[in-house]
Amino acid sequence: MKPTLSRQTIINVFEGKASPLQKSLVQEWLEVPENQELYFQWLEEWERDNPQFFPDQETAYRKSLQQRQGPENPQTPFSDEVSAWKPVKNRWFFWSLAASVLLLISSGTALFFKEELLYRHYKTSYGEVRTFTLPDESRVVLNANTTLKIPRFDLYQTDRRAWLSGEAEFSVKHTKDHRRFVVYTPDNLEVQVLGTEFIVYSRNRGSKVVLNKGKVQIRLKDQTDPPLVIRPGDIVNLSQQGRLTLHHRQPVSQHGAWKDHRFIFKNTAMLEVANQLTERFGVRFVIRDSILAQRTLGGTFRARTADEILPILCDMLNMKVRYGEDAPDTYELISSQ
């Protein structure tokens, strides 16, 4: 049976006051995934009350880990290292602690643990829409099949940073120190704001930024040109080829319909409809008929699963669905004509 530890026991480890028995119990306690998240929560709270770490998190983390995994001692035990720590005002103290905790995890899970240590993750599964409040009191609504991560320890960074894969609506709270909120996407798009409401879409087919309120600056990573400034009603698309396209005075409200599990189609080709259903529900569509793939439809539909909307689309486009026997999440769309 895994031990149950109090918050004060973990705080003793942070402050270098834990006994050998306590350190051994912490090592065993951290093998439980639920305890790891609680550990991070207490670590954040303790660090806010004891600010003493270096702003460059990645550099500090790597340096501390290298120091503790020297060539002669690549796997320094957690219990041996902690005993020598004292509560000193040293900028490397925090990351020495983090690196030592990592060393108690097996090599197969060390990278995962490092990611969990440095970043807080928000995720949705297929068909799921969720609202989260970030530590700075900004609000974010995640569309289905979306991941957002933010640094757990961002107190000394110039910007508030977030990395998005999927689609999300942000309502950014302005801070007293005027720190920017920057969203990064996998295709090197950077969206910079102070306080505003906007939607960021970033999937395999490209990226898109829809501005509802405020003002946003958009740039590509390593871009030397001045950032693109957009205003409410503007939409910016980033193609797979890395090309930015700006559209002014667009009906932006329809781009947030997914928050209510709605689809809004306006003369939309069936191929595009299938792509949206795939992104939202995680199913695969096969359309062998090129004419059917280009047939268009319009209307507003509410659906939480692919099976809820497919019968309606079949009636509208006079088509039928053949379900994959070997691949249950594959749907083949066939014209009934």
From TrEMBL:
Spans traversing the lipid bilayer: 92-113
Pfam families reported for this sequence: FecR, FecR_C
Domain Protein FecR C-terminal: 262-322
Keyword Transmembrane: yes
GO molecular function list: sigma factor antagonist activity
Alphabetically ordered keywords of this record: Membrane, Transmembrane, Transmembrane helix
Classification via InterPro entries: FecR, FecR_C, Ferrdict_sens_TM
Top-level taxon: Bacteria
Domain FecR protein: 122-217
PANTHER family the UniProt entry points to: PERIPLASMIC SIGNAL SENSOR AND SIGMA FACTOR ACTIVATOR FECR-RELATED (PTHR30273), PROTEIN FECR (PTHR30273:SF2)
Protein name (database record): FecR family protein
Lineage: Bacteria, Pseudomonadati, Bacteroidota, Cytophagia, Cytophagales
